[in-house]
Each structure stands twice: as structure tokens, then as C-alpha cells.
């Protein structure tokens, strides 16, 4: 199945030949790439990358690989940078009596563990979220193209919010499988004093005590936390970018400089991040409690926390996730600019749909 998907991605007309020339593959020319971009004003989709000034062809294997690399950088760097805040947030969630607030959490941690204590869990955070970023961003681009091919480009535009939601949910499903083992080690290091101080210590101990289940026991609540978060992250970001260019930015996206476009990216990312934090916070609290306590289930952890406990640590998480999401989108988009990758605009109406609506009198000329 995957091999047929790869071959379909390359079903494009050869260079310097008419559009009627038969492509060198069994599938018709309107394959994975062509169905997404046909009729749109995206140079990278209709001409060779070298002639368009881009480093790769849109929706090619190189394009998807670079998207994955951008995801590694955006998630790995940002999550590692906020480890101190994440540590305090996790401790507030699992022990609100001892860690009463963000400020108090920092004070108690510094008093007991010193400045180095604030960096606990940085290694599993870096490796875990780098793996997650690879799958999250890379597979999002893959599934967005694949689902567009399945429903057609006109439906993909009309129902683009659902497209963003479904593509991001599918990508995050796989991303969490990559993240779960490292997330288990991170939370254990941060919330169980004396258990382990490093990743090398934590993994053998978790395996010795709980077996392979110790790395994946929180996968379901992780899905409950991350899938809604990622759906909001991508769908809200895509639509916010579209709305900012339509109602806030005083000129079309094509007339904006790269730096101006990146400012819009950061703003849209922060707005999306605030909503992400609120939607996913209860499940995040359950994940923290579950990984702290051996043998507990998600339902037992939720009952023990109670409704009020599920929302503990929301303020630092809004600050953390808002900043994280904004920086992730900024790094991801900046990476695309630096690598000279195609960046198709969000919400671009297909030419075929525009002509249909004009013919029906539903669109102004």
C-alpha cells in the first residue's frame, strides 16, 4: 500500500512535454500531487523545482522529508527550552499541596534540587518530542495531500477545516506512539523523587518494574491529550492565518515579505496555542498522574484528581503551550523559507471552483 502511495506521488508530467503526454506510471496523470494543485497558482506544482527557484517539488518525497526535518527542529528545540516550566507544571498537577503555584513550584524546586533540578527530564523531552515532531509535521503534510486526492481539490477547499482536522489527527496518532516511551521516562524523572535523574537510569528501571507496558500505559490518555491538541493546533492555525491575511494584514500574502509572513505565522501560532492548551489540559493532567503512579489506570487517576484537580496547572500550561506553538510554527515556517521549499497559501480557491461559482452567479467577477 505504501509503495503504491509513493509511486502515485511521482505521477507528474515529464518536463518540457505537453500535458497530454502519457506519464511513466500506471496511474493517470491526475495523481496524488496533481489533484491537489491542478488549477491553482502555485508555481512549484507546475514547473520543475530548479526553474521555480524552489529546492524541491511540492508533495515530492524530498518535500515530505524536509517537512519531517522541520518538525524535528520545531518540536525538539521548543519543548526542551521550556523543560523548567514543564517540570513545575507536572509537579503542580501531581502534588498541588506541595507545589501551590508556578512561583512556589520554582522556589521549592530550587531549594530542594538546585538550579540543575530545573533541567530534569531534558533528554527524554528532546528525543521524544523530536520523534513526535517528525511524525506530526511530516505526516500531516502527507495526509493532507492524500486526503485531498481522495475527496478532490474542490471538496478539499470547501471542507478544508475538516481536512486539517482529519490530517492532523491521523498524523498525531502515529506521533504519540513515537513519543510515549520518552514521555513516560520524562514524567517519572520529574515527578518521582529519587527514582532516576537521567534517561539512562530511568529506562532500565521502568522496564524492570513494569515491562514494556510501563512505556505505553499512558498511550491512550496521551492520544486523548495530543490528538485534540494537534487537531486544534493545525486547524486553528491554518484558519487563523487565512483570516489574518483577509481581515488584519493590509496587503495580500503574495505582496508581503518573508519576514512579514513569519510575523503572521507567529501570531497565528500563539492564538492556536492558547486554544490547544485549554482543550488538552485535563488529559495532560491525567498523563502526569498516571506516569507518576505505578499500576494506576487513566480512569482511576482521573477520579483521584477530581474535576478541580484536572485543571490544576492550566495557567502555566497556557503560557507554555501558547509560546511553544507559536515558536514551533515560526521555526517550521522559517525552516521552509531557509530551505527554499514551496509554501502554498492557506484557503486558496481552486480555479475550477472559482469558474463554476462565477458561472452560477455565486461569485463576483
UniProtKB/TrEMBL annotation:
PROSITE patterns noted in UniProt? SOLCAR
Which molecular-function annotations from GO does this UniProt entry contain?
phosphate transmembrane transporter activity
Q: Which residues cross the membrane?
A: 262-283, 314-335
Q: Which SUPFAM superfamilies did the record assign?
A: Mitochondrial carrier (SSF103506)
What cellular component terms from Gene Ontology apply here? mitochondrial inner membrane
A Gene Ontology biological process noted in the UniProt record is: mitochondrial phosphate ion transmembrane transport
Stated membrane topology is: Multi-pass membrane protein
Solcar repeats mapped onto the chain? 62-146, 159-243, 260-338
Where does the record place it?
Answer: Mitochondrion inner membrane
The answer to whether the entry has keyword Transmembrane is: yes
Asked if Transit peptide is a keyword of the record, the answer is yes
Q: Which UniProt keywords apply?
A: Membrane, Mitochondrion, Mitochondrion inner membrane, Repeat, Transit peptide, Transmembrane, Transmembrane helix, Transport
The family note in this entry says: Belongs to the mitochondrial carrier (TC 2.A.29) family.
So what does this one do? Transport of phosphate groups from the cytosol to the mitochondrial matrix.
**Protein name according to UniProt:** Phosphate carrier protein, mitochondrial
